Amino acid sequence: MKPARKQRLMLIGLMVLGASLATGFALKSFNENLMYFFSTTDVVEGKAPKDTLFRLGGMVIKGSVERPNDGLMVRFKLTDFSKDVTVEYTGILPDLFREGQGIVSSGRLNTQGVFIAEEVLAKHDENYMPPEVKDSLKNQPTPVEVKP
Amino acid sequence: MFLIPAPVVRFFHRMASPPHFYAFTERLMPWLVVIFVLLTAAGLYGGLYLAPADYQQGDSYRIIYIHVPSAWMSLFIYIVMAVAGAIGLIWRIKLAEIVAISSAPIGASFTFIALVTGSLWGKPMWGTWWVWDARLTSELILLFLYLGVIGLYGAIDDKRTASKAVAILALVGVVNIPVIHYSVEWWNTLHQGPTVTKMDKPSIHVSMLIPLLLMALSFKFYYVIALLQRSRTELLLRERNAQWVKTMISEAK
């Protein structure tokens, strides 16, 4: 390789390396802000903000969904398989909302530690399969994957 | 160059010559189109008709046959563009510059398709058109990078200078590619994690996976076809005063 080309190659290498380092440091320092939601453990341990809106993510505990009165208000428990948080929401739930499904909701904590949701979004998992396969999987104990 | 066999080196050297590239791609084109049409037909038939409905999403999941290949292509094309740009910068090969800039509009289109189809799917499934999570935001930045490349190239009159400027922009933007890919693992996002490219076996049923891979391959062929067409036009435009173009035109008359 000719010296001039080698020099240009080195320069480009350094440029890409520099840009990656800068981006890496920037992302590292914004790490908290890039988290789209807090986990239920964060909320129980008091890491979530107190009086402001934040997003809470977790899995809806099977059998925890209830409608205490005739209205649209629905109450359920979210978990990350370690700590639980009770959520109350008034409104229309998305198609994929069901027990055992991951969701992300936005809202704030009230004084009793109940999360009052203003918006509920379903978080789809990465599994795709036909219904028959799902049925046959039901008969086996499914491995539970805990996402941080 | 001791790692690459001599015939391959010779092939690339000849391809770097504009007249040879122009003639060779003209002969290649019909084959590419035939393969593309066959792959697309097989992929769409498999994806929209043969593949079963999903256990949770029903038929709505079928958007992955467009969305996922488009998103893969948006990353793939960006890497091709940046590598071609680097080759153009280092070795000053005209064709590499042309490949780099011709990739940009195609990559931008795929990025746009990935964003729009994702949004259309997100409304019924997540309950929202758009959220500012790490995956969606970084993919949007990718679209702006592509648009920046196109805009910068258009803003500089001397196309060889423009190619150098564009290559540097593309190379700096490369840091966004791993960020997009790993965003769903590094941070909590609303977007789901990777399905196919996980280290263990893909968490998609094989009857749904095969059409997806066919579509991914067909999109690759589409890219090559579109890239060659754009490159040929750009090449003619840049070489309009060269002898081989004049000879070719006079022969065509």
Offer a quick outline of the entry.
In chain A, 30% of the residues lie in helices and 26% in strands. With 148 residues, chain A is an alpha/beta fold.
Description:
The complex is a heterodimer of chains A (148) and B (253). In chain A, helix 3 (40-44) links the parallel strand 1 (38-39) and strand 2. A 5-stranded mixed barrel of chain A has the order 2-3-4-6-5. In chain A, 30% of the residues lie in helices and 26% in strands. Chain A has 2 domains: 3-32; 36-125, Nucleic acid-binding proteins (OB fold (Dihydrolipoamide Acetyltransferase, E2P)). With 148 residues, chain A is an alpha/beta fold. Chain B is built from 9 helices and no strands. Chain B is globular. Helices cover 77% and strands 0% of the residues of chain B. Chain B has helices at residues 6-15, 18-50, 64-91, 94-125, 134-155, 159-173, 176-186, 206-238, 243-252. Chain B has one domain (24-252): Four Helix Bundle (Hemerythrin (Met), subunit A) (Up-down Bundle), CATH 1.20.120. The mean pLDDT of chain B is 90. Chain B has 253 residues and is mainly α. The interface between A and B is large, with 42 and 43 residues.
- For the secondary structure, the number of strands of chain A is 6
Query: What is the mean pLDDT of chain B?
Result: 90
Tell me the overall shape of chain B: globular
Outline the biggest β-sheet of chain B. none
Strand residue content of chain A: 25-35%
Largest binding interface between chains: A-B, 42 and 43 residues
Count the helices of chain A. How many? Answer: 4
Report the radius of gyration of chain B as a whole number of Å.
Answer: 20 Å
The CATH superfamily name of the largest domain in chain A is: Nucleic acid-binding proteins
CATH topology (level 3) name of the largest domain in chain A: OB fold (Dihydrolipoamide Acetyltransferase, E2P)
